[in-house]
Amino acid sequence: MRDWRRKGSRIHLLGAFLPALIVFAAGGVPSAASLVGSGDFDFYVDVASLPTGTGEAMQLLQVAVPTKELRYEERGGVFRADVRVTFDLRAGGESIFRKAVQLRDSRSAPPSVKDLSSFLCHVDSCSVAPGRYTLTVTVEDLQKRKRTLLGWVRKSYASSVVKEAAIEVAALETGALALGDPILVWSIDGDGGVIPNPMQIYGLRKDTLTVLANAVLPPPARADSVRVRIVVTKAAGDAIDEKRLSVPLRDGRGSFTESFDLAAYVAGDYRVLVEAEAGDGFFAAAGKDFTVAWELLNWQRPVRDILVEAGFVFDDDEYERFKRMTLGEQEARLAAAWKKIDPTPQTTVNEAYVAFIARVRYADGHFGVFQRGATSDRGVTYIRFGPPDEIIVRPVPKDRADLLSGMEKIGDEYEIVLEGSRSDQDAMIRDTRPRIVSPERQRATRGNVGGDAGSFEIWTYNVKGDPIFPGDTGMTLKSGLRFLFLDSDGYGDYRLVGTSEDMYSAY
Q1: What average pLDDT does the structure give for the chain?
Q2: C-alpha–C-alpha distance, residues 134 and 28, integer Å
Q3: Which region holds residue 438: left if phi is over 0, alpha if psi is between -120 and 50, else beta?
Q4: Residue 188 — φ and ψ, nearest 5°?
Q5: Which of 43, 437, 444, 485 has an alpha carbon 20 to 30 Å from 13's alpha carbon atom?
């Protein structure tokens, strides 16, 4: 079931050769979570720093691109994905390490695994002096062209980027014991090749945490071995697991791996801390955070889908905090929030969540034009209040009287929405009557009060609809809710331009 592909992705366990293959600096990068690319798809970057004993730090860059995010094209019975990864490490605006590599994955059938456990992995390295840097990593799917005319002309592809991540490489004390940042491992081959886990995610698809670390004791200090203590702690710092071992040194260097069974760990954030001692008074420590997630849906969904759900569940401040959480912490936070909303907590099914997922799927399938349907104005309204009791549709209004009467309907449930006609004298009289047009109505007609109007829809909920979230139940009127959506440009992109009460504060 472990379905991964690698290109330059293996780190070998022979201690004497380990420094030649790793590490990418991370002194100034928040270690609570790996870096996640933003753009057309998700990808992950992990950074760590490994001392070489020469005053510089060998840098390892680990990149993981989930195959569920990529397009596989069939050619001659072979399904192939092509990805280009570009690294740009800068100091003071000057590029000191820039490299582009192309990864190719060929297989007899498209990936059957549709979650984070199937990924393309690439590892690269360089050596840098202590200092501050910025790192930009760009990943392009070379099988997926941008779906725009300009994209086709310029031959641009679907892409995502980690942009200008702050990196700080700390100076190492001469003759002191140094410990590289722990590397989180996904798997180890029989010949000692290591597939790293840049996502820093464990749990459902990988319930064993394996840590790889490296110690260096440069001259004039001497020791035959180092004593190592590896501790797993909760985010708050409470130790929950511990292992000790003795690592032999060869030419002042030693590497080691250790594993922990995570089966009993609850979803959330954890930290693995490695401490090393050698001889008299030599001590070093380094740590790495990781997250545990057990819900299959969270392994399958891209980050942007999880954020869409959080946008409905949390208010603005909570949402901003949620965005900075790791996957495991997000899973625990969402589970707690949905538990509060569950109308029948004594059962195993959360009807509120089931209804939410069904509405999201409907919105995605019916309301998306230039954006995802669930995030469009009609989609948000549908998810929050359910199917309306009545929809008045004017796909081609004959004159602006239709739209103006629609605006009146928003404030007055008994208003009859006209279906105007140039030969309809009443409509024409109504059309020419002097009016005071509010800013909202000016926005609905783009300020062109005397011109033709775009297509519009009026959604009516006779009472309060069927709200899922408690915050929406208290915002409805006894006379019901009414929403006016206007497609002002004629492309099917309906925007909310009026409601029977001020709903904007809830968005």
Answers
A1: 79
A2: 10
A3: beta
A4: -130, 130
A5: 43
